[in-house]
């Protein structure tokens, strides 16, 4: 009887969903919002631990396309940014790990001329609400709000948030990562991919790439 009761309780807990963004932000790992699909908890990384996922098979030959309208009214075309490393970051305002990661990505994009970031908000949110949110959580990179019913075809639908794709200067997928990442981790990945070569950022800070 005790085992059966515990099983019922576990099912009930798994079925609980946060009622608002503040409640969702308390989760250690973000999951897609209502309307954006549900993540499998067994696939989510532990709190504070990014799961590094290398593309399988011919994944490294993939050169994904991405054309989105950003919050400032301009258009972001991934193909136009060849020659630089690009982080395509899926995130949401209610995702606490996403919010912890944003300052790292923002600083990295500001410090390194060879690295860019584009943030793809994977949630149902109005532009005015997003703009108000970004006043409190400013970033240096462009943000686009995705249609969760029609996400970019060349990118896997996120199993959890944040989900980040590292695109090489030639447009290939170098790495994809589920869970929050740090600027240092990104620089290490780029250094490994380039044989440890370094560039000096505009502020004089040495970095790999």
Please, could you describe this protein's structure?
With 209 residues, this protein is α+β, with helices and mostly antiparallel strands. The chain has a single domain, classed as Glutaredoxin (3-Layer(aba) Sandwich). 26% of the residues lie in helices and 21% in strands. It has helices at residues 2-14, 21-25, 96-111, 127-136, 183-193; strands at 51-53, 67-69, 75-77, 85-91, 115-121, 143-145, 163-167, 173-178, 198-200, 206-208. The strands form 3 sheets. The chain has a 6-stranded mixed beta sheet with strand order 1-8-7-4-5-6, covered by helices on one side. It has a two-stranded antiparallel ribbon with strand order 2-3. The protein is globular. One of its GO terms (molecular function) is oxidoreductase activity. InterPro entries: AhpC/TSA, Thioredoxin-like_sf, Thioredoxin_domain, Thioredoxin_ResA/DsbE_sf. One of its GO terms (biological process) is cytochrome complex assembly.
